[in-house]
Protein: 50S ribosomal protein L27
Amino acid sequence: MYDFIQKFHSGWAYLALLLLVVAVVNTASGFFANREFTGKDRKIALFGLIAAHIQLLVGLVLYFISPLGLALLGEMKDASARLTSLEHPLINIIALVLITIGWSKHKKQAESAAKFKSILIGFGIGLLLILSRIPWALWL
Structure:
């Protein structure tokens, strides 16, 4: 069970990152081109939001069933142990909160530019945080 969830978490990460990148690029192009915010733009951002939340849920399950997750919390001097047991989950939770705030704020906006800006800021900062805490040595 643990191996399946770990592989799913690693594999789903590619899809989640791709959808987040597409959402950020689409939103940035809409913002800078002064386009109208359409249903297509909303759906692209929504797919990125959903994929990121699924990744978070799978990651939390993995963290609590992993033999490494909580056991490594006492070994904060080791950089790789600290990354996988503390930094990766904590920063990614913060990133998902920012992505969710960006999504929620866009729904309250009336103008297209404001909608694009809310999503761009929330998703953009969230994506940067996620990319900063990926355990690249384990992932590639």
Q: What stands out?
A: Residues 2-32 form the longest helix (31 residues). The CA atoms of residues 31 and 96 lie 22 Å apart.
